[in-house]
């Protein structure tokens, strides 16, 4: 270390603690010298003329006092022990005061929610006014401040009712019977689904439940025709007829993971989905208008111009889940909607909101089948029908297909 950098060790609290440990360990310790540290050496060397080559040794002695060794080698002294102990407490008090001062002066987001970033020119007027007046942003920082972002009140506003009337309705009934799913397993086969049957009706919210590992997601993927490994057998019918080739295009599937482009806004994500997935002959203006309908239906007016961002600096988890559902609705599914555990990872208020939105979609005429794990009584009451699986992929109970 260059001499002009020696002051750095004075502000390093570790070196004070290290000196305390070294002085405490070496004081009173006698270090015995062994070859090759004994000089001179040889068959005719007299022990009375031998000395130790270690730092801090005395002529004519083959032992070195530990305190003298650390003082000569490092400048450490036992007399600095309690002085350094006091310096360590001074550092502790100093850092404690700095931390307390920082926690008092640095104001985090209210409620610990993520910071919402809006695209320039798309900030809602009431939020912009709230920012300029120093008030709390409604709908962006407090998940329980209103029905738009976490409140448990049912939205019966004229805009919401009008959006429900404009959303695409499902008229077909999807049925399945004797569904089995077999995969290769350890030089043999393993059956994950056993003779599963049931159906989903338009305007009904159907829950697919079961214990962990019972095959809820597996059945959901099989019904959505998304399995490309193993063998799926059984009958899948739309209004009693085999599935059309356009079945996957006519359905929506909201996965459990909310994967979105972080730099896009909520409105842009919906419009992008509508442009790619709705029929080509539909005018662009009509697609954009339908996206606005979805925004009103899912109560995303306050965040329509917000960038999606990443976890911690964008939409919160409930808003991301609503956007995932909205992206699938923007494709105008004609048959039904599949959702894979839409309430996983959400608190009770956010989970209630998601189920409430699904209830609104079902009331608007959509056929919805979703897996859900351990719902509360309040959430469970929103569902119309139930399919319960037991371990091994067998139907234990079904309100739509009789007892399993």
Layout of SSEs?
Blueprint: H1 13-26, E1 30-32, E2 38-39, E3 51-52, E4 63-65, H2 66-74, H3 81-105, H4 125-133, H5 158-166, E5 174-185, E6 188-200, E7 205-210, H6 216-223, E8 231-238, E9 241-242, E10 251-254, H7 266-277, H8 284-297, H9 317-329, E11 336-340, H10 348-363, E12 368-371, H11 377-380, E13 385-390, E14 394-398
Parallel strand pairs: 7-12, 7-13, 10-11, 11-12
Antiparallel strand pairs: 1-4, 2-3, 5-6, 5-8, 8-9, 13-14
Structure in words:
- The chain has 404 residues and is α/β, with parallel strands linked by helices.
- It has two domains: 3-105, no CATH class; 166-398, 3-Layer(aba) Sandwich (Rossmann fold).
- It is built from eleven helices and 14 strands.
- The protein has helices at residues 13-26, 66-74, 81-105, 125-133, 158-166, 216-223, 266-277, 284-297, 317-329, 348-363, 377-380; strands spanning 30-32, 38-39, 51-52, 63-65, 174-185, 188-200, 205-210, 231-238, 241-242, 251-254, 336-340, 368-371, 385-390, 394-398.
- The strands form four sheets. It has a six-stranded mixed β-sheet, sandwiched between helices. A four-stranded antiparallel β-sheet has the order 6-5-8-9, with helices on one face.
- α5 crosses α8 and α9 (317-329) packs parallel to α10 (348-363).
- The radius of gyration is 35 Å and the shape is elongated.
- Quote the CATH topology of the largest domain: Rossmann fold
Outline the low-pLDDT stretches: 136-154, 400-404
Strand residues, percent = 15-25%
What Rg is obtained from the alpha carbons, in whole angstroms? 35 Å
